[in-house]
Specification:
Chain lengths: 291, 473
């Protein structure tokens, strides 16, 4: 006889939603669905365009070209680390940081409408809604891999093969907290976004602020003087800064990450992921009611 | 079958009693055989007049309510045995879909609980969770993985799904270009081919064409025989009656009847008619209170003439069909008529209010209730003229019996025709079974249900002219 399923009016106790095992199992058991949705999304993104999927590669390439022309040749800015030729130094550094940072920003911006815009999946089928934010993160991750791959090719050409360092093997350790952080924040934002539709406007502003609070296109030491210790700490130690900085080290500069900082960020990201899953799971029951 | 269901009646006491869980039977086999057990289920929505109220509710972590409560469903209890088919009927907004969503698991109940044994496939309304941008093929695999089937399992089932859906090359088109019929075809095909233990069909068949409906019904019957449990929501009374053994009739979120399908459906149909009549009587009561009372007392006394007492009857009541008789040419009442014999329908109508633009429409039906032919007094060039309250008219309709042997029925409708602007059409009195008769002993073959005079000619053709005739190829 098949398993008995009980749909009760009694909501499960709040603590039952806190389930690291459930979180991992849910992602693992729906991995095929996630891959399917993410692949779909990358294809859909440029659907109808003549070059189609090729834009997934063209877009970052052209962006890099623009950066190189503007920052490398016109402004002639230099970051001044590593052994990258002058005109490529600033563009590549900015580009590498942005590729990582963008994974988070894109997911956070999309999260508030992620579930609320899919009412057919909320009401009409028994769908594992919690995978939707995961799907978005996975798609953004794949896109960032494409972007970083292009970056490495340009780097190799620009430095005649000397730009590639063995420290790049640490890249997965940099990516891991980025993905956990993105998924956790997406879970929380997408759950709350179902109930509070104004959230997406707030998030857009916050991500903009975050962009300036992360040393993406400036060097911390050059811009923020030691007279502002609090601001310095926020900018230098926010998780995304650590991830961006670590990414640049392993990709461009041939340095190992700041292991202590990265460990803290990894722990923090894991906590955010668990928290996000808890929020999503606790709000899941009521989602169908507001659609 | 538990004892609750073995008696044929439509007993609401059972349903109400269910809101406090009562053990149906001590036998485990009985419990094992229950596919769905709904106990005191209710669903409340809070209607917020201001969005800030919703926010307050959320911030209170669901402990306090600031909106106006609205119960979409309440006090619903019933058991469905394995292999049983239950039809759910009710007007729009009666809670049918809410109940299906709770059973399927997309909505959480506010009260009570639902126990389910087995894998559920739910076709909830149209759209059914397909992703519009994905192709039909991708959606099939997606639906499979949502249901927990692996890709390989879906590979095995795919051909069966494709051939059942019969949508051809559209399978590789995005679902957003599908017609609603194609959508329903694919959704249904997926749901039946993954062989669920419990199938929920919510109004999805109504968009398919007749051929597909038949196919779906045949398939559902076969699966029911194999032990599948079916919950079937439909507005088609006949479909519910023919597929389901039992029926649940919901009104305003409350169960009115849970019993044999035909009873639940009839009760529902009756309520639909009463609603129409109620409205007419309300408007009548405002204008002429004493007459409205007179009409209310009428529906019982149907002894006059051959007015079918068990027939379905509705209308505004501004005018009434008082009696109906079937006579032969000599004016003798009869119940059987030979093929080719004249049938005279004699009807007395009475005006309750001032009436004009009257017409009387009749229709002859076969035993399944299908209209075969008919006409109307005005169509035949006759007129009623204006009638004063209390006035009566005798109407005679004569036709030659063209019917194949078998039982037949007569439906009558007294209407007010629309005016020159096309407005004001009113059904004053309608009777589905105004009279019944038997067509007997045709001396000739009647092919089909009705015979229409045909002239047949055969002539010999001379050999030389044959060549000049048009060739059929």
């Amino acid at each position: 006889m098949s398993e008995l399923v009980i749909r009760s009016s009694e909501p499960p106790a709040l603590w039952e939603h806190f389930s690291p095992v459930g979180m991992v199992r849910s992602i693992w058991s729906h991995r095929e669905l996630i891959r399917n949705f993410a692949a779909r999304e990358l294809v859909e993104r440029h659907k109808g365009a003549m070059l189609g999927v090729a834009w997934n590669i063209m877009n970052p390439l052209l962006t890099l070209a623009v950066y190189t022309i503007v920052f490398g040749y016109i402004f002639g800015q230099r970051w001044g680390k590593g052994n990258i030729p002058d005109q490529f130094d600033f563009p590549l550094t900015f580009f590498a940081g942005n590729a990582l940072f963008h994974v988070f920003v894109e997911c956070a911006n999309r999260a508030p409408t992620m579930v609320s815009s899919r009412s057919n999946l909320v009401r009409k089928v028994v769908f594992p809604l919690e995978i939707l934010p995961v799907t978005a993160v996975w798609a953004a991750f794949i896109q960032s891999l494409i972007t970083l791959g292009l970056l490495l090719i340009v780097l190799l050409i620009a430095t005649n093969g000397a730009g590639l360092h063995w420290q790049i093997v640490y890249l997965p350790l940099v990516m891991l907290p980025l993905l956990m952080l993105s998924v956790g924040v997406s879970w929380a934002l997408s759950a709350v976004g179902v109930f509070i539709r104004d959230l997406r406007h707030v998030v857009v502003v916050l991500t903009q602020l975050l962009m300036f609070m992360t040393p993406l296109f400036y060097k911390l030491d050059e811009r923020i003087s030691a007279d502002h210790p609090v601001l310095r700490t926020i900018i230098a130690d926010n998780p995304l800064s650590v991830i961006v900085e670590s990414g640049r080290r392993v990709l461009l500069w041939g340095e190992t990450p700041d292991w202590l900082a990265l460990s803290w960020v990894t722990l923090f990201s894991a906590a955010v992921m668990l928290g996000g899953h808890f929020i999503f799971s606790a709000m899941r029951r009521s989602m169908a009611d507001v659609h | 079958m538990s004892t609750e269901m073995s008696d044929g009646g439509c007993r609401m006491s059972d349903v109400k009693a269910g809101s406090s869980p009562s053990p149906t039977s001590g036998l485990t086999s009985d419990i094992e055989n229950t596919a769905i057990s709904v106990r005191g289920v209710g669903k409340r929505y809070d209607i917020y007049s201001r969005t800030s109220d919703r926010l307050k509710h959320i911030l209170s972590v669901g402990t306090r309510h600031y909106g106006k409560p609205f119960w979409a469903l309440r006090d619903v209890s019933f058991d469905v045995q394995r292999g049983e088919a239950v039809g759910i009927v009710g007007r729009n907004g009666s809670g049918k879909s809410t109940l299906m969503q709770i059973i399927a698991g997309t909505l959480a109940p506010t009260e009570g609980e639902v126990r389910i044994r087995g894998r559920i496939a739910a076709l909830l309304e149209l759209g059914s969770g397909f992703n519009p941008q994905f192709t039909g093929r991708e959606n099939v695999y997606l639906a499979g993985s949502i249901m927990g089937l692996t890709r390989r399992e879906m590979d095995d089932k795919f051909d069966a799904i494709a051939s059942f859906a019969e949508i051809g090359d559209f399978l590789d088109q995005p679902v957003e270009v599908y017609s609603s019929g194609m959508h329903a075809r694919l959704a249904f095909a997926v749901s039946v081919c993954i062989e669920p233990d419990i199938l929920i069909v919510d109004e999805i068949l109504s968009v398919g064409d007749a051929g597909f409906q038949q196919k779906c019904i045949a398939r559902m019957r076969r699966m029911l025989d194999a032990g599948m449990t079916l919950l079937f929501v439909s507005h088609s009374a006949d479909m519910v009656k023919s597929i389901c053994s039992r029926g649940l009739y919901l009104q305003g979120g409350r169960p009115i009847c849970f019993g044999p399908a035909s009873e639940a459906v009839d009760l529902y149909m009756q309520s639909l008619r009463e609603q129409t009549t109620d409205r007419a009587q309300q408007s009548l009561a405002q204008r002429k209170p004493e007459l409205a009372k007179d009409i209310e007392s009428k529906p019982g006394d149907e002894e006059s003439g051959g007015v079918g007492a068990d027939g379905l009857r509705y209308g505004t009541g501004h005018g009434r069909i008082e009696s109906v008789r079937l006579l032969d040419e000599q004016g003798v009442p009869r119940e059987g008529f030979s093929f080719g014999e004249s049938i005279v329908v004699e009807i007395v109508i009475a005006a309750i209010l001032d009436l004009n633009r009257l017409d009387l429409v009749f229709s002859i039906r076969d035993k399944a209730g299908v209209d075969l032919f008919g006409s109307a007094v005005v169509d035949e060039g006759e007129k009623f003229g204006p009638m004063k309250p209390g006035e009566r008219r005798l109407v005679k309709l004569t036709f030659v019996n063209p019917l194949a042997p078998g039982p037949h029925g007569l439906a009558l409708t007294l209407t007010r025709r629309p005016d020159f602007k096309g407005e004001g059409l009113l059904t004053l009195d309608h009777m589905d079974a105004a009279a019944a008769f038997e067509s007997v002993g045709a001396k000739r073959n009647v092919r089909g249900k009705v015979h229409v005079a045909v002239k047949a000619e055969v002539a010999a053709i001379a050999a030389q002219t044959a060549a000049a005739l048009p060739q059929s190829t």
